[in-house]
Amino acid sequence: MTDYGEEQRNELEALESIYPDSFTVLSENPPSFTITVTSEAGENDETVQTTLKFTYSEKYPDEAPLYEIFSQENLEDNDVSDILKLLALQAEENLGVVMIFTLVTAVQEKLNEIVDQIKTRREEEKKQKEKEAEEAEKQLFHGTPVTIENFLNWKAKFDAELLEIKKKRMKEEEQAGKNKLSGKQLFETDHNLDTSDIQFLEDAGNNVEVDESLFQEMDDLELEDDEDDPDYNPADPESDSAD
């Protein structure tokens, strides 16, 4: 007849020796304890960790122990689910022999895998960001490839903007035409226009300069004196053209 109590006590002593810093007894009847399992350090010294709680059933190891995840750090929900499935599989495979060390070792390996997956996932995210940045840079220098669809969209937008500009210009020209005054209207609205030239000459006074050189050659010009013309009749306007 198997002495389950003896096997359980012997395993507890062995576990306390193997995990001196992470083994904690919670109760003696039924025997219940926790073991904290930590992964190896990742790329940035990051780790994942879980504390497993085990409780011996009356006929352990012929029956699987009760187990649960007592606490965890940096694990996703799917990681927790995977660990519980792993414990169930290992417990089923090791019925009949003490198995806590085997279960903890399996969880330890799983945690190391999770750290590797985190590293791989971050590398993929980094590569994806680099790829997106590269594509954005190419887009900046090469622009958007022209397709029939985006060309038609651009042309429709361009035509609409051009039409708006033409409408605005026509409206401005029409408004300018309405506001333009005729010469008569200008004189009617500004009475200073008819005296502006006279006022200019009065303001100039003696300051008007005459270039006398323009008249130096006047004496050299051969001008006919109408009075020397024997046919000249000052009372007859046509006498000048009789010749």
Automatic annotation (TrEMBL):
Q: Where is the composition biased (Acidic residues)?
A: 209-243
UniProt KW Nucleus keyword: no
- Region annotated Disordered sits at 198-243
Q: Pfam families attached here?
A: DFRP_C, RWD
Mind telling me which residue stretches traverse the membrane in this protein? none
The biological process GO terms on file are:
cytoplasmic translation
SUPFAM superfamilies assigned: UBC-like (SSF54495)
Q: Tell me if Cytoplasm is a UniProt keyword of this record.
A: no
The UniProt entry's sequence similarity note says: Belongs to the RWDD1/GIR2 family.
**Role:** Protects DRG2 from proteolytic degradation.
What's the protein here called?
A: RWD domain-containing protein 1
Gene, per the UniProt record: RWDD1
